Amino acid sequence: MSGRLRLGFLNRVYSPAFSPQVYQDALELFVVAEELGFDSGWVAQHHFACESGRLPSPLPLLAAAAQRTRRIALGTGIIVLPHEPTLRLAEDAAVLDLLASGRLQLGLGAGFDPQSFAGFGQDLEQRHSEYDSRIARLAQLFAGAGLNAAGQVLAPAASGLLQRTWEATSRVEQVAERGNGLIVAPNPNLPPSASLAAIERYRAAWRQPQRPARIALVRAVFPGSDASDPDASLQRDIRDYIAGKQHIGRYDGAATEAFSAELERLDILHGDPAGIALRLAHGPALGPDDQLVVQVQTRSTTLDEAIRHLQWVAREIAPALGWQPASTQASPQELTHP
């Protein structure tokens, strides 16, 4: 990794069962992460408790996080765009961005879960075409395009979000063509080198001389945890995650007998912080306009455990990569490129 590292965290808002406390815990992590100097915090959207994710509506939660924090960037990682009425999403994002003083990072994706598309009465096979038409319209709305013959436009305006839109997709050339940031996460059906290849393709396709390409590299990081321990909740959670992916056809082949091979396939980093830092240092190079986004929770991770993981990352792992807490870095406006 090179340049001045940006550091974020991703909370998938997992929980074995729903409780209103899961949202309060998610908000507490934003507060803690800001105090630790993290540059950004991201939350994932899951409909109908897919993968034990308990957050179908990320923007209201980020609005609450905006009122509890003052600096940390607030990201969606990701919103499933085919499920969203485009104009309503644009309005909600515009209001949230004002409440957050320009801190919203809008991450979008096409989705993959069959149960989610069935719940919305949509055809899973049409998700990419739906995504393409909606993200094009969203960009038009943020740019102030007219809504109708009467000349109505998005109000409040949200032109700054044109520079703070991100996409999670393997179709990286289209992301570059649209001028959006790229969210890269390990794919269990592809070798770890696939992330590096996707980043290189994205950078090669970038044609926006007025602003830089942007990468958000997501890595699962569990410092101090032994994911290979069969008695640990982390291993049980990972095995359940694999079973769920297999059930919906998103994990090729049967689980291997050697669990260590599954950890490598999922690119999960665990154990000694120094060892984790070394693995990250040998990963894709990240520049000053990119960021490393760590996921430190699985379904059974308690709030206290998640906080300890964030502390380990902020105090031992990220500094070994050249990161400094945001209090000594640039303002969030520089992170977001408004």
Automatic annotation (TrEMBL):
Gene3D superfamilies associated with the record: Luciferase-like domain
GO molecular function list: oxidoreductase activity, acting on paired donors, with incorporation or reduction of molecular oxygen
Boundaries of every Luciferase-like domain copy: 20-274
Record-given protein name: LLM class flavin-dependent oxidoreductase
GO cellular component: cytosol
Transmembrane segments: none
